[in-house]
Amino acid sequence: MNDSGVEVTALCQFERVQHQRFTVQYDYPVYFTEGLFRSGNGAFCEALSRKEHEKRHRFAVFVDENVAAARPRLLTDIVAYAEHNRQTLELVAPPETVPGGEAVKNDPQLVERLQRRLLTLGIDRHSFVVAIGGGAVLDLIGFVAATTHRGVRHVRVPTTVLAQNDSGVGVKNGVNAFQIKNFVGTFAPPFAVLNDIEFLHALEPRDKIAGMAEAVKVALIRDAEFFAWLEAHSDDLVAFRPQAVAYMIRRCAELHMHQIAHGGDPFESGSARPLDYGHWAAHKLEVLTHNALRHGEAVAIGLALDSRYSVLVGMLAPGNEVRICALLEKLGFALWNPMLDEHDGDGRLAVLAGLRDFREHLGGELTITLLRGIGVGDEVHEMHEGEIRAAIAWLKQRRGPR
Ligand SMILES: NC(=O)c1ccc[n+]([C@@H]2O[C@H](COP(=O)([O-])OP(=O)(O)OC[C@H]3O[C@@H](n4cnc5c(N)ncnc54)[C@H](O)[C@@H]3O)[C@@H](O)[C@H]2O)c1
Ligand SMILES: [Zn+2]
Q1: pTM to 2 decimals?
Q2: Beta bridge partners of 343
């Protein structure tokens, strides 16, 4: 140690290494509420003022345009809520809409336009950028917030099942580039997350279901009991009964948050992406279908594929993949997409490029989560093309007559 407490290692007479080391603690609350912008609901004010009580908090709001369309009074409700709580809140401009859905992550100009907008609005490192929307809008606005002034405070209000139970409660953001999902992005924990179940009622039926794939995913790799619960409550989930939906979201969010906080690698600097079971194929299928498949729909196919693959390589006892596919189909997922069969110009299966993208994203060693049992994920470092082809053929033959 030198005088400043910095560890110094002498290598030889003329060289030395000074080791820099510090720890940063992250914490953020995830609220589960209803009627977020009703005048009596204190969650939003509490979330923004949790670190500084005695001031008015400046904030800008960006809303997924499909959420705004489904909830025509939302923007005026936000303005009224801010006015009602003006001792705590200062809305810097009327809420603004941004396009919804995956396309919003494919437009590099939009990132720059929004960064410029934050400049115009005078958003500084003590102001807040609030994003209300599906996972795609949250990823975009999260990225814009994280890269403006090297990171301004970001509050997420997820409005889809997937965003409430998975993407919105995590630490990642990003946009797509060069035909690769999330190629540009950052790890940036939010300041707070506010899950309001009321938003979900306006979702299209397919979006109500799509996010449930992430619940099946996390149950499969972490929690057999939750998997059994999903099986037992599949009718309630298909009917979108509020109690079952609320539990499914909460348990799924909890499991994701637990992994981030206690998995030992919240910013994924190692070579694993433990929560991304089924995702190497899913990400590629999203691209190959030009986003005709929603993320959750592609994940359901990826789960089915990797379950069968786990059986074929002897990791998972046969029969489990049938049980997994049965649950996914019961929930309403189609487990076949013609793009699984697509070949590139060199005659290679196009979906295999998803493995290459995964390896490159992680930096070198491929690490893929497969299954040893229901509730038991395990990592492997290679996948065999022959068994992948066989798993795809199995999915194709079992889809039955159309
Ligand atoms: N950052 C992460 O850790 C992480 C994790 C998983 C997924 N993701 C990303 O999340 C995205 C998928 O998110 P998603 O499944 O929420 O889809 P989405 O954001 O594409 O939303 C689906 C559709 O629903 C609309 N919508 C959203 N909320 C609505 C509401 N309440 N009422 C009516 N319509 C509404 C959207 O405008 C869109 O058209 C993908 O880009 C995926 O890569 C990110
Ligand atoms: Zn996912």
Answers
A1: 0.92
A2: 349
